[in-house]
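Per your request, structure below.
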């Protein structure tokens, strides 16, 4: 038994809310995660998780153990990153790109923090609203959504992008809430055709999956136009929650059809496929995954204030699979 690996899997199960989702995030079979947790509980002679055919719950002992494990793993990861930086000496140019929606609220600040931790680096950054090929365009790493990598590209998931269908408060006051999926097709929609090229929106309910054909009246590849389109009061749109947290909390934007969740797209770090990934790329990716892996901070903040978003953000669905 690899005790450290079992502990990491336990933390992942608690944060993901299910064995199945933890296995998906780690890229292993669900049976592997189950075996690790069983071995960990046997080693400690404690029940950390209560399992049934429909739900998984953390015991009081498990919750206490999780908090302690999280602190230990964070310290261990920080120590590894610090030692790697000292041993390898992160120096030279480090070229990064990122989609603009994540740059403004998060990555710009993250890059400044990363540069403070590694003062030998010369950071060059560009933002974009399209898929950027790090090999062809000369970047060390590109943070973006996109298709699975092939050939010379590799990718590591930072976190799954969860989106909501939203309208402005003035739109809802004037037109009311859509009562069903079919109502959406009757409303004017603004669409990011870079993220959703198909003219269908796919929704997953607790017991069903359905799709709605749409006819967008505004199409763009930039999140900023979608934001203004929604706030104008005229349009509905799909928006990533990390980008509209403030508008949701203030009530400027209103989530619609929250008994459904919308198919996720992973935010990945893309880089050149190689047997030996540069240490600065590996350290930067681990830096981002420590910040945003598991349940990202914006999701925790929203759920504290708006618990009705649990289904829309996939949490109840995750609870049903152990």
């Amino acid at each position: 038994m690899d005790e450290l690996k079992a502990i990491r899997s336990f933390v992942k199960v608690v944060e993901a809310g299910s064995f199945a989702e933890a296995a998906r995030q780690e890229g292993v079979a669900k049976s592997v995660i189950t075996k690790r947790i069983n071995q960990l509980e046997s080693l400690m002679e404690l029940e950390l998780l209560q399992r049934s055919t429909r739900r998984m719950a953390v015991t009081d002992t498990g919750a206490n153990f999780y908090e302690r494990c999280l602190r230990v793993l964070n310290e261990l990861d920080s120590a590894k990153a610090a030692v790697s930086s000292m041993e390898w000496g992160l120096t030279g140019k480090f070229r990064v790109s990122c989609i603009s929606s994540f740059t403004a609220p998060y990555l710009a600040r993250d890059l400044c923090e990363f540069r403070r931790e590694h003062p030998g680096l010369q950071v060059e950054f560009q933002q974009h609203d399209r898929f950027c090929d790090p090999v062809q365009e000369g970047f060390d790493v590109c943070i973006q959504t996109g298709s699975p990598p092939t050939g010379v590209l590799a990718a590591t998931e930072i976190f799954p992008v969860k989106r909501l269908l939203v309208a402005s408060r003035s739109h809802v006051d004037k037109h009311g809430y859509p009562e069903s999926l079919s109502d959406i097709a009757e409303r004017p929609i603004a669409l990011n055709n870079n993220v959703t090229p198909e003219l269908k929106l796919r929704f997953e309910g607790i017991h069903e999956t359905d799709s709605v054909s749409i006819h967008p009246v505004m199409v763009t590849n930039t999140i900023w136009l979608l934001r203004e389109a929604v706030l104008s009061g005229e349009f509905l749109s799909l928006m990533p929650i990390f980008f509209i947290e403030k508008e949701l909390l203030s009530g400027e934007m209103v989530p619609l059809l929250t008994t459904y969740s919308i198919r996720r797209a992973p935010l990945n770090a893309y880089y050149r496929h190689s047997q030996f990934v540069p240490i600065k790329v590996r350290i930067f990716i681990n830096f981002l995954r420590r910040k945003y892996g598991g349940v990202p901070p914006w999701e925790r903040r929203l759920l504290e204030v708006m618990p009705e978003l649990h289904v829309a953000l996939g949490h109840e669905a995750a609870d049903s699979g152990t």
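The chain has three domains: 3-76, 89-159+267-292, 163-262.

Regards,
D.
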